[in-house]
Write a structure and sequence with these properties.
14 strands, six-stranded antiparallel β-barrel, six-stranded parallel beta sheet, Elongation Factor Tu (Ef-tu), domain 3
Length: about 300
Amino acid sequence: MEVIWGVENIRRSYRGLVLTPGSFDGIHIGHQKVIRMVVERARRIKGTSMVLTFHPHPRRILKPENNLPFLTSTEHKLRLVEGFGVRTCLVVNFNKRFSRISARDFVIEILCRQLKVKEVLAGSNYLFGRGREGDMSFLKQMGKQYGFRVKPLRPLVRKGQVLSSTRIRQLIQEGLLSEAEQLLGRPYSILGRVIRGKKVSRCIGYPTANIKSGGEMVPPEGAYAAWVKWDGNILPAVLGIVNAEEGVIEAHLFDFQKDLYGLQLEIIFIERMRGRKFFSNREEARRQIEGDGRRAREILSRNPLYRDSIP
């Protein structure tokens, strides 16, 4: 997949460009539906499929005081988008200056003049431009005026609620991973890098890789059964999260002793087994972690990813 970092780096025109714009945090099943339709439509007209997204997430600029954690970093989002066969992804640098662009100028300057878009697909509730002034009705009017097709799509509804990234964040914050998985269309996962730890777990016979989240939402404190992936490898693991706000996860990879320091890993959360516990001594902690490990192995042995794991 071609990735264009910034509107100023668009160097060529694209034949029959079919595009969907949005933040796409989480790439949930609603996002996936739109992206698949874009890819299929571009294939039918022998054109080019494109996802237009933003870095950083607009809320980081417009409402920085919220300090809202997100489901997917830009890097993670690009990995997921590529998996759907998208030809090109345009990552727009979202800053204060860009936030002041009117909806009309966004359409004329970016969609028409620079991209020469042929078709735009987006949810019927999509809003864009300065102060979110543009909606799909406005976009359709602009399409008629400037010669591109606009297809609004109904938002997906699950259990009486419109599917949204906000709803998925709430589920993850509550530790309801299976419910979040249903809306994501995949187990929740984050990217993180292995950092130096205090080696406390090693002292009780359970060495861990300390993984620092790259800004993606970390589930609440407790113990989890999970898979850990990197460079084509996938291993079963039991995770410990002591302080979700710090974004550090302790991962004990079963039957694996190599040093992973500095590597970027993907942590795939399968099940939260318990909340956080406090121990009076190391032996008590060792017994609990040993039990967590047995339970995690049993949970993961039933998981579809098991057949792809390394012995």
